[in-house]
């Protein structure tokens, strides 16, 4: 549900606003963690806690019926008149009542007789296939490290509820950082996501060599763990935006869905990593650190999307950077 909401929010606005809307959408997740810690402090019965935390979903489900369809999706499927109607509706509510919206027919639009692009195209199309493989690993690592550090908050000592709340609130500064860096031409989406993943990995690696009682270092394990949570949250936020720009409109929801599915495996495996402390107290952070570093360097194989037009159909895709590098090496 959150993934569909993210895609719909992105496609309601122009590409120049994607960094802002994507960051604001993901920001609610960080606040949710902090609020959940507060609820858990006052509501100790887990059944009542589950009921209170899930009840708002019913209200938002009913509100979803009032939302219009994505005009970008309608346009890519050849439903130009419906897309014009939605854009006219948006313009009217934005005070542009005299604006008349007319769209040119999309050249690569899907016809009624054509099969609708979906998950299978992510495997059969060579460009989409390699992008999907790389993105799946990046999403997996983001989830693995993100939830691993969140669930490991109870192992840092001190008040459990305070640690969980801090692990949520520490994400808040990550979003303005994302919005600043990913719009810079010298950094962009690709380098900024790679940098944040590498910094998250380094924070976890450095934590391996610190102990809570070691006062020779300015940073304690708790501070470094929170710093790792901040940087991986920033990377996770950028990956959402970056992935939505790498996929054409016709398969964007399918691509994000596949990446999100693989992402859940990281969340499933993350709770078992703290048990590796039986091998050594620093092993869990070593696993998170190596994962973050590998995903960060792998991100550099993807093409940059900053100030590039968004592909509406699969035919609009351009050859990615890593294929050009591969051809040069072959020569």
UniProtKB/TrEMBL annotation:
Gene3D superfamilies reported in the protein's UniProt record: MFS general substrate transporter like domains (1.20.1250.20)
Q: How does it sit in the membrane?
A: Multi-pass membrane protein
Lineage in the entry? Eukaryota, Metazoa, Chordata, Craniata, Vertebrata
Alphabetized InterPro entries for the sequence: MFS_sugar_transport-like, MFS_trans_sf
Q: Which GO terms describe its molecular function?
A: transmembrane transporter activity
Predominant cellular place of this UniProt entry's protein: membrane
Record's keyword terms, sorted: Membrane, Transmembrane, Transmembrane helix
Listed GO cellular component terms? Answer: membrane
- PANTHER family annotated for this entry? SOLUTE CARRIER FAMILY 22 MEMBER
Q: Name where it's found.
A: Membrane
Q: To which species is this protein native?
A: Micrurus lemniscatus lemniscatus
**Ranges in coiled-coil conformation:** none
Q: Which residues cross the membrane?
A: 17-39, 46-67, 130-149, 161-182, 194-211, 223-242, 285-302
Query: What is the recorded name of this protein?
Result: Major facilitator superfamily (MFS) profile domain-containing protein
Q: Has UniProt tagged this entry with the keyword Membrane?
A: yes
């Amino acid at each position: 549900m959150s993934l569909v909401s993210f895609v719909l929010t992105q496609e309601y606005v122009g590409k120049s606003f994607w960094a802002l809307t994507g960051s604001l959408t993901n920001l609610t997740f960080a606040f949710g963690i902090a609020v959940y810690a507060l609820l858990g402090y006052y509501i100790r019965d887990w059944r009542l806690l589950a009921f209170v935390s899930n009840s708002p979903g019913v209200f938002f489900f009913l509100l979803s019926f009032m939302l219009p369809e994505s005009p970008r999706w309608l346009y890519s499927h050849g439903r130009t008149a419906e897309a014009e109607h939605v854009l006219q509706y948006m313009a009217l509510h934005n005070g542009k009542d005299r604006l008349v919206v007319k769209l040119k027919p999309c050249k690569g639009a899907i016809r009624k007789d054509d099969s609708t692009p979906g998950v299978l195209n992510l495997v059969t199309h060579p460009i989409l296939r390699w992008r999907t493989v790389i993105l799946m690993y990046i999403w997996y690592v983001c989830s693995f490290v993100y939830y691993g550090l969140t669930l490991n908050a109870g192992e840092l000592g001190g008040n459990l509820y305070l640690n969980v709340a801090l692990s949520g609130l520490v994400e808040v500064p990550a979003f303005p950082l994302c919005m600043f860096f990913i719009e810079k031409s010298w950094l962009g989406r690709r380098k900024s996501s790679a940098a944040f993943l590498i910094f998250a990995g380094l924070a976890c690696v450095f934590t391996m060599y610190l102990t809570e009682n070691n006062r020779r270092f300015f940073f304690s394990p708790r501070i470094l763990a929170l710093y790792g949570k901040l940087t991986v949250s920033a990377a996770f936020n950028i990956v959402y935006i970056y992935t939505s720009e790498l996929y054409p409109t016709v398969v964007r929801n399918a691509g994000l869905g596949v990446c999100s599915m693989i992402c859940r495996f990281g969340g499933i495996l993350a709770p078992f990593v703290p048990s590796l402390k039986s091998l050594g107290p620093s092993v869990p952070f070593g696993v998170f650190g190596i994962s973050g570093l590998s995903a960060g360097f792998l991100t550099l194989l993807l093409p940059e999307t900053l100030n590039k037009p968004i592909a509406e159909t699969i035919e609009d895709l351009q050859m990615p950077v890593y294929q050009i590098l591969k051809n040069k090496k072959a020569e």
